[in-house]
Amino acid sequence: MKTTAFGGKLSLFISAFLAPAAVFAAEIFVSTSGNDKNPGTENAPLQTLQKAVDQARAGDTVRILPGIYRSNTTITTRATAEKPLKIIGTRSADGKLQSILEAESKILTAWTPAPEIGENVWKIKLSKRPDTVMLDGKMIAQINKLNMLIPRRKQIPDKLTAALITGNHNPKTSKRMAGFDLLAAGRDLKVYHDFFKIDGIPFWETIGNVICGWSKGNLYIRFADDSKPAVHTITASYGDGVTLKNASHVVLSDLYIRGSKNCVHIIEKSNNITIENSLFMNGANRVLVEKEASSVTVRNNILTLGFIRNKYHTGDKRSRVTYLVFKYIIGVAKSDDCGVNFNGSNCSVYGNVFVNGLVAVRAHGPGAKVYGNSIRKMSSCGIVTGGFSSGEFYENLIMECGLNLRIHDWRHERFYRTEYHYRNLFLNPNSKQLHIYGISHKKGHDKVNFDKKGIYKADPPAPFDPGKIFLYNNTFCGGSAGAWPIKNYYARFRKQALPFYFMNNIAKSNSSWEVKHHHVLAGNLMYVAANHKNSAPAEGVDKFNKIVSLDKNDTICVDLFNKKLPDIRLKENSPAKDCAIDVSKPFEFNGLNVPALPGFKPGYFSGKAPAAGAIQAGDDKLMEHFTSLYNKMLETEQMLDSLK
Q1: For residue range 286-307, what is the model confidence (pLDDT) as tens digits?
Q2: Residue among 469, 349, 371, 380 nearest 425 (CA)
Q3: Which of 48-62, 331-345, 459-473, 527-541 is the least confident region?
């Protein structure tokens, strides 16, 4: 074998010496006291995260030292699975997050009175409308652009009714409350709304006695409690905290991101992004994944709205006012707040704590896995699925939300939609647990097929299949798990049973459950009130489900205000035992062949048949799992209460 003139060993040395420096992973440091002209070492750090990520390569780690960083950061690095780019914050010895990221922001100090608008209204010159306005670190309500364009009335209304909250925004025809009128409204303004059964809830108290709105180069703020801007720190911010654009294999960890339109925004063809061990607060979305992005993992984070009146995100009527404010005053027609909002494919959301807000998870992408999350006090919904959603949703603890689960946009789509919801624990003291909602009757691509009442004009076009929705082996404690719209959809689709499978659940029932409306309605333990009206046994719930009077409720919790998680393990004489269907293997129901369902391996139960509900007899591990989620929620709430 021939060698070079340098000899074999020298040749290897030179090859190693000439190899690209990128083979050695680098650590790049960022500090608020650094300088972007520095090399980025620990002793000579950079000043901005943007400079660090621009300099970083695949395999590098960017370490953010303690401090508050007020700038927008865009990451475009395309790393690899073997050499990911890591962006890691700093924690104190006791675990507190010390690397705080905010969007580009400014502290507002030059306020002047605005008596031309109303009493206790102040204004400041601001050329551009802020995305987020913060008062002493808490997000406050900002009136949407369209409401600020509605002309003022001669007399300011003294009641905020449904007509003044909703409706069109046309300045000539709108009946909404004008933004400026809302800024000047009286201190005793109360909210009335028949649908939400709101009958005189104080408006100002519910939203923290403060609101703001921007118009024609001025930001206006109103204090209904005689406070003044000078005694507060008021911050206006613009844009997103961290944007990932066409990035791949990037890890964000141990960060505290707040005061941004979207804390983390994942756009274009970004993929294989991991977001973990962080705290996200404020904005319209804590994590937003656009449709073209894919394979995003959000795990072990805390996500909260951080609104100035967090304590009203509970099941009482004030939470409904908060919901209306975010949907129609801050937003224009939708819940303008979400923890994790993903439209991309193959996203995983697990091990997170969601507390206080409107929506915890909005899942609108295929291939989803949402599991092991603790969700509490969402004034709108815990989990919302819709559009092009498909995937598995399991072992989540969802409690005290306006609706714990909302299956949205269930209609005739070109996309085949299949959802599996299993082994979840839903807790709600009095509110509804589950809502199935479809909008096929509204204008859209299928409007040609429907008459004015929203019913198909002829037999549904082939292939008619809006996808399959499976809810099985869940435990609903309190409230009602009735899927009341099913009856309407049954008529809409010309009385064809809908591909909705409700099996093996423990739930409080209502009169909307009928087997003829569902492909499968069987194996459930249903607690019913004395005045419950069941269908005829031949086609009703009695034949295929176990019906128990509500006064014999020994399995689901009635009182959820005892500040501890109800123990839902099955008692020896529980009526849930042996009443369910074995979903680990294919089965037949009323002539319909049903395949084996995800989440259950053969032999998962003991006895003659499986038990209804999330937990099988003798399964202590799942109860320990829910207890762990609950305890983590309590610890999170205590931490957020003490957060400055």
Answers
A1: 999 999 999 999 999 999 999 9
A2: 371
A3: 527-541
The values of phi and psi at residue 341, to 5°, are: -120, 100
Tally of CB atoms within 10 A around 605: 20
User: Which of 100, 103, 30, 27 lies closest to 65, judged by CA?
Assistant: 30
Beta bridge pairs of residue 593? 588
The larger pLDDT score, comparing residue 241 to residue 402, is at 241
**Whole-Å CA distances, 496 to 340, 449, 490:** 35, 16, 6
**Nearest by Cα to 548 from 577, 508, 516:** 508
Q: What is the pLDDT of residue 512?
A: 61
Mean pLDDT (the chain, rounded): 86
> What does the alpha-carbon distance between residue 242 and residue 252 come to, in Å, rounded to a whole number?
10
Please give the pLDDT value at position 497.
Answer: 76
- The per-residue pLDDT for range 185-216, each reduced to its tens digit, is 999 999 999 988 899 999 999 999 999 999 99
Is the predicted pLDDT of residue 326 greater than 50, yes or no?
yes
Give the single-character DSSP code of 46. B
The residue-averaged pLDDT of 625-644 equals: 92
Task: Give the strand pairing for 67-70 and 99-102.
Answer: parallel
Q: Which residues are CB-neighbours of 193 under 8 A, at least 6 positions away?
A: 161, 162, 165, 320, 324
Taking the C-alpha atoms of residue 503 and residue 501, their distance in angstroms, rounded to an integer, is 6
The pair of structure tokens assigned to 535 is 């269908």
Q: What are phi and psi of 21, to 5 degrees?
A: -65, -20
Which residues does 64 contact at the CB level (< 8 Å), separation at least 6? 30, 49, 87, 88, 89, 90, 99, 101, 255
Handedness of CA 533, 535, 537, 540 (dihedral sign): negative
HEC sequence for 436-505 = ECCCCCCCCCCHHHECCCCCECCCCCCCCCCCEEEEECCEEECCECCCCCHHHHHHHCCCCCEEEEEECC
Is the pTM higher than 0.85? yes
Over residues 246-262, the mean pLDDT reads: 97
Nearest by Cα to 372 from 555, 91, 599: 599
Task: Tell me the one-letter amino acid at 94.
Answer: D
